[in-house]
Automatic annotation (TrEMBL), chains A, B:
Residues 41-125 form the D-glutamate N-acetyltransferase-like N-terminal domain. NCBIfam families: DgcN. It holds the Pfam family DUF1611. Residues 131-328 form the D-glutamate N-acetyltransferase-like C-terminal domain. InterPro entries: DgcN-like, DgcN-like_C, DgcN-like_N, P-loop_NTPase. This is Uncharacterized conserved protein, NAD-dependent epimerase/dehydratase family.
Length: 335, 335
């Protein structure tokens, strides 16, 4: 699934920044791919990109409008439809990470069809996948894994891409969730793939590559999450990672969405991921830890990072506070 | 998904018994649910059930024709269509475990629609599932797990149901694959569920029940299979098994479909399944092993069972040679 660039980011009538977090993600990680943002009256989100109309965006060469806003329940709001139609008329494709499909709205489908535009619903994988083969393929691969869902795997993976590219590595972010796909312009929403094809879809996402090329694969869920561990394990096996980075958010009372399930111990979580990963890549090893310390004070965060680093004997970073240089130092030392 | 009983088993023009293994499975495990078999000229399979015409089957009260034959590539053969149409005309629903959908054949779809009959494609789960909650629910549950795919999990689970019911247990087979679903008349093809919902679909398949009721859940795949382990893990977490039975076929040179992947050691496989299962049920334990010794001589089989039993300290059976009484003895001693 390839989304044509550059983008116009549509923030709609987002009532707060959180509702537009997809737009913020794209603006943060791919500003060079965006001609600007387009907002409806009353919008309370702002990515800081130039404000442009749909026609101006088209004149600036925009190829795709990204629905960068989430409505309650993952629905497309009625107020957005006239603007989405206008974008199609102006020559743009539409790309959307919500549960509801653009293609399921008859007016959008008919207009796109008559104009030859694409409606790209990234949560609904198009095409079919093969069953995973487990066959070892060339190229280096890194996968972020988590103690839980929503611990910063996408953010960490993108930060690694930026740092590695900055140091001259040949490295590509590989997206496995809707926001990541809109950022990268390509990818597979692995939790939406039919169960039989999880590892096969991931094998297709990060295929054989040059021996010194790094695929940096966005992880999903956690081996310890009772709702989603199957996705995480299929992803781990399909990725054949040489390197793992464990992502953790230290202030949660329990795993996301499942009261009564404590967060796993970090060392135990690393050991379980390494053991499972070695089925398809015997060299798999965890090379560091990424902690999301947003809920902690600077002092607490520093203590957490230092304690964890000492306890595990692995570099321990917060991408936002410390950057990920320490992880890339470790990657540079692999071989 | 509930399939109306009794059944007419359709064997078509099966060129050999293996092509009709679904029909054999239903005839073996649910003969009381079958009014008979219907074969086309030249059919080389025979379940031993009475030979009946479609009209006779209808007169005997048959409610569903089961497509009990597999064509190359999982396709519905053109030669079967007139008979499938005749069955719809005679008042029967159609149920099918092949990849190709009955519902995708326009002639069948139109006829079923006009007559108000159901076309049941068990490989394609109907309806939607919730995300798994991991919440502990009452009732006892047993899951068969495997060193590999196709090691006898369905057969073992059905043998346990028969033995347990014979001893007065309140026990139900829960099907997770197409043949099992046609045998049970209900179930969920877990490998065809969207990845996000694997454990949730299994939670729905074997919901809360009476404290002394046993759900006997058909396993799929293996935690050690690089193509399918995600399915196996989601199934394990959703099942919340109190008891596990490991199924194994001892003569394979490698895991099914993936040369280079050796079969896991049995003790290691048990330990990995118990560790993973304990996320959602801390009491989970393996209570025995089921070996498919069909490829071994009686002497070799006996030695294999005895050696394995001594090595693992668990009852070790072959459902076909020894029955599963030793496993049910162990189940009876639980609690």
């Amino acid at each position: 699934m390839l989304i044509a660039k550059p983008y116009l980011l549509f923030l709609g009538d987002a009532p707060d920044p959180l509702a537009a977090k997809t737009a913020y993600g794209v603006a943060r990680w791919r500003p060079e791919d965006c001609v600007g943002q387009f907002r409806l009256p009353g919008c309370q989100a702002d990515t800081g990109l130039p404000e442009v109309s749909i026609d101006t965006a088209a004149a600036l060469g925009a190829r795709t409008l990204i629905v960068g806003v989430a409505n309650r329940g993952g629905k497309l709001a009625a107020a957005w439809i006239p603007e989405l139609l206008a974008a199609l008329q102006a020559g743009l494709d539409l790309a959307n990470g919500l549960h509801q499909r653009l293609a399921d709205l008859p007016e959008l489908a008919a207009t796109a069809d008559s104009l030859g535009r694409r409606l790209i619903d990234v949560r609904h994988p198009a095409g079919s996948f093969e069953v995973g083969t487990g066959q070892k393929r060339p190229g280096q691969r890194l996968l972020t894994v988590g103690t839980d869902c929503s611990t910063g795997k996408m953010y960490t993976t993108l930060a690694l891409e930026r740092e590695m590219r900055g140091r001259g590595f040949d490295a590509d972010f590989r997206a496995t969730g809707q926001t990541g796909i809109l950022i990268a312009g390509a990818g597979v929403c692995v939790d939406a793939v039919v169960a039989d094809f999880i590892s096969g879809a991931v094998e297709a996402l990060c295929p054989a590559n040059a021996p010194d090329h790094w695929d940096l694969i966005e992880g999903q869920g956690s081996l310890f999450h009772p709702s989603f561990a199957g996705v995480s394990l299929g992803l781990l096996h399909g990725a054949q990672p040489d390197a793992l980075v464990l992502c953790h958010e230290p202030t949660r009372p329990h795993l996301r969405g499942v009261p009564g399930y404590p967060l796993p111990d970090l060392a135990e979580c690393i050991a379980a991921n390494e053991a499972a990963a070695r089925l398809t890549n015997p060299k798999a090893r965890c090379i560091g830890v990424s902690i999301n310390t947003a809920q902690l004070s600077a002092t607490e965060a520093g203590r957490w990072l230092e304690d964890t680093q000492n306890r595990l004997g692995l570099p321990c970073v917060d991408p936002l506070r410390t950057g990920v240089a320490a992880l890339v130092d470790r990657i540079a030392g692999l071989g």
